[in-house]
Amino acid sequence: MGENKEIRPGVVRFLSDLKSAELKLAVVSSAYKGVVNWILETLGLAQYMDTVITGDDVVNKKPNPDCFLMALERINIPKEQIVVFEDTEAGLRAAQNAGLMSLGIRHSYNQSHDFSFAFNQMLNQV
Question: What domains can you pick out in the chain, each with its CATH number?
Answer without folding.
Answer: 11-125 (3.40.50.1000)
